[in-house]
Amino acid sequence: MSELPLPPATRQLGGGDIAVSPIAWGMWRLAENGRTAREAAALVHAALDAGITFLDTADIYGFDGAAGFGDAEALLGEVIAAEPGLRDRMVLATKGGILPPLPYDQGEAYLRLAIDNSLRRLRVEQVDLWQVHRPDILAHPQEVARVLDDAVAAGKIRKLGVSNFTIHQTAALQHFLGRPLVSTQPEISPLRITCFENGELDQAMTMGLTPLAWSPLGGGRLAQPTTPREQAVAAELDRIGTAQGVSRTVAAYAWLMAHPAGIVPIIGSQQPERIAEGMQALTVRWTRQDWYAVLVAARGERLP
Q1: For 38-43, what is the mean pLDDT?
Q2: 195, 188, 159: which is closest to 264 by C-alpha?
Q3: Which of 28, 56, 122, 243 is the most exposed place for a label (fewest CB within 10 A)?
Q4: Domains of the chain in sequence order
Q5: What value does the mean pLDDT of the chain take?
Q6: Which Pfam families match (predicted)?
Q7: Residue 59 in contact with residue 93, Cβ under 8 Å?
Q8: Which stretch of DSSP H or E encloses residue 82?
Q9: Extended beta strands in the chain, E state
Q10: 237 CB contacts (<8 Å, ≥6 apart)?
């Protein structure tokens, strides 16, 4: 039975000139529990030393509903300031455009401020990727595009992407931008398969966008499945994982990475060993039959 190709050791972000690891590490929980800069640095080193060079954060990370806005960026900024050489080892991505408690604001004045504030907290002059975190329905995409184009022209941002955008919202922003978007960041997991069937990944392949999958483990539900559907998906992943000597978690990452759109799963763990473990996904072999078996379990019904 033919096997699907293994993921490459690196991917070109949006098919351009930035090489990224095929797995990213996300920092939405970096600033929790009073983590110190030294402890955060250990996590950054765990990712980089494992070969995970793509680091994803956002200005909203650290916000608990009342306080903490920008804390994850600021903590990473402390790490970078203490070891400036780390910056050259990473592809740094952040996001903005959420303003609690509105919750969204991509008006020109706030968006310019949000970009500048992220750079200040991160203590860098430029980020490699800046993504609109969630779409502001009240912002005209032409206005958003103008701010983003200006930020790229000013050297503050290398590449642009979107997160949690619909197909049409992505197309509208791209229409007004003076440069191509390179990424899209939807929720994708073996328990969240909407993107496989609603055209988002087809659009990504058409436009050359690299899909970055947030919550690739279904918000932790794959680790502790409770419903019959979750248990069925976990069982299929366990079957593959056991056969190839990897954990259910690694099998889940690998399942996403086998898709031809070149999905980059974002590891959310803040444990060094779990971060490093993710790179084992590059060794997992999938046949079409096994890949579709996971999809059938996720659908809860046979394919037509």
Answers
A1: 98
A2: 188
A3: 243
A4: 11-220+259-274 (3.20.20.100)
A5: 97
A6: Aldo_ket_red
A7: no
A8: helix 71-82
A9: 11-12, 19-20, 24-26, 54-56, 91-96, 127-132, 157-163, 183-185, 210-213, 264-267
A10: 190, 222, 248, 251, 252, 255, 294
DSSP-based three-state secondary structure for 129: strand
Share of the chain above pLDDT 70, in %: 100
What are the tokens at 148?
A: 């983003």
Residue pair 209/14 in contact (Cβ under 8 Å)? The answer is yes
Handedness of CA 170, 173, 178, 184 (dihedral sign): negative
pLDDT at 256 over 80: yes
Size (the chain), residues: 304
Contact 79, 40 (CB under 8 A): yes
- Per-residue pLDDT at 1 exceeds 70: no
Catalytic residues: 61
Residues 6+ apart with CB under 8 A from 297: 190, 229, 232, 233, 235, 236
Per-residue pLDDT tens for 110-124?
Answer: 999 999 999 999 999
The predicted-structure confidence for 174-183, as pLDDT tens digits, reads as follows: 999 999 999 9
Strands 183-185 and 210-213: what pairing? parallel
- State pTM to two decimals: 0.97
Rounded Cα distance, 53 and 34, in Å: 25
pLDDT tens-digit map of 73-90: 999 999 999 999 999 999
Q: Could you tell me which residues are beta bridge partners of residue 25? A: 55, 267
The string of DSSP codes covering 137-196 is TTS-HHHHHHHHHHHHHTTSEEEEEEES--HHHHHHHHHH-SS---EEE-B-BTTB-HHH
